[in-house]
Structure formats: C-alpha cells, structure tokens
Amino acid sequence: MTNTATKQQEASPAIDEFSFSAIRARLAAPIDAKYISIKNLGGRDIPFVNITDMKDILDERVPVWESHVAEVKQIGENLCVVVRLSIHTTDGVFSQDGTGLEMLNVNSYGDPFSNAYAQAFRRACEGFALGRDLWRKPHPTAGNIQTAGTPLSGPAGRRPQVKPTQGKADNAHEPATPAQLVLLNRKISEAGIDPTALLQTEFADVAAVGELSKRAASYLIDLLIA
Fold it and tell me: Which of 2, 12, 37, 99 is deepest in the core (most CB within 10 A)?
C-alpha cells in the first residue's frame, strides 16, 4: 500500500488594512490629477491641492482621522498657525503637526488665518506622506533656475508694488525684521528659486537676503507670495 503525501496549504496571515503601515502606504500613493491645481510662485508653476480636496482624499484613504488647531500666535507681522492631524489605526493613534505662516497684511486671496491654516494642514498631511510628491523640487538646471536679469512676476504675472529704488541702502536704518527673513527664505525655497539670482535681478547691490531693508524684503515677499 502506497501512502500519498498531501501538502497542507498554509494559511496566509491576514493583512490588517487598518494598521498604520497599511494606511500610510495608501496615503503615500500618488494623488489623482483631477485634484491637482497650479499656482504661480516667483514666475514658476507650482502644483498644489486645495485643502477641501485634501480632506476628501483623507476621507477616501483613512478610516478615521481628525484635526484641530494646536496653536495660533503672532510672530512679528505674521500669523503662525499649527495644525495637528491625527489618524486612528489598529496600532494606535498617530499625529503629525504642520505649521503655516502668513503675513497679517496679506493682499492676495484669502485672509491670514485661512491661508496659514491651509498651509499648516497640507504640511501635516505631507508628514504622513500624503501629497509628498508635490513638495519635491526638480534638480536645479538651467531651465528652472531664475537667471539674473530676468524679471520675476507674482501671481497672474503682476508685479505687486513699486520696487524700492535700492536694496541694502534703501531705508538702511530699518533692516528687515527676523519674521520677514524667515518668511522670505521659506517662500524662496518653496518657489525653487536661486536666491543669489533673485537678488541680482531685483537688487544688484545686495549680496545676501539678510542685508535687505524692511521695505525691500516686503517687496520680495509680496512678489513671491501666492
């Protein structure tokens, strides 16, 4: 009598679709092009997702999530908002904070709180990998670095205000505030602009962002803000 060996199929371990790793993997997936809009920063088109659409995407990919404003404070002439985004998983509750900064005298669309809140919310989402590809900048090439002598334009191609006649020397007794410099450096970074080329284009007598006058810094912020 011949014994026939039978191979018992091993049961595959169940995949927990509500675990943190599974949810994060879903969050990291590319965002559908229908949600992506384009805005102009410093003469360069930047992809972004409206905050309402971002919340819809969270609803699609995360079973339970919540957010709240963790902090609001004024920093110089800017409003700072911190948003805490939490997702509930079978591993526990995980949170990410995002920070948004907007000028109090913002003259673009929206109000300071709404704009800062939207920035903070999107940054909190990026902390969970949602929309992270939208934050990536291309490697610097001749095609995407602003070159000296090429005029910049703000949103919709407008120049926001009359440029100060000088940079460092203009209003030299009133240097740019720390809050202005923080905001300006962040806007330059977000736009992917070479700061040296920007200064050469706008204020030939200024070698570094830290040398700007308050009036000149305000002009550049208005130029880059969206």
Answer: 99
CATH number at residue 114: 3.30.390.80
pLDDT category at 75 given cuts 50, 70, 90 is confident
State the CB neighbour count (10 A cutoff) for residue 64: 11
DSSP state of 66: E
Element (H, E) at 108: none
Residue 136 DSSP one-character state: -
Contact 185, 101 (CB under 8 A): no
Which SS3 state, helix, strand or coil, does residue 152 take? coil
- % of the chain at pLDDT higher than 70: 69
pTM: 0.58
Strand 64-75, strand 44-49: pairing:
unpaired
**Helix, coil or strand: residue 99:** strand
Number of domains within the chain: 2
Domain identity same for 211 and 168 = yes
DSSP 8-state assignment for residue 5 = P
Q: Contact 100/71 with Cβ under 8 angstroms?
A: no
User: Between the CA of residue 72 and those of 82, 95, 114, 137, what are the distances in Å?
Assistant: 6, 18, 12, 29
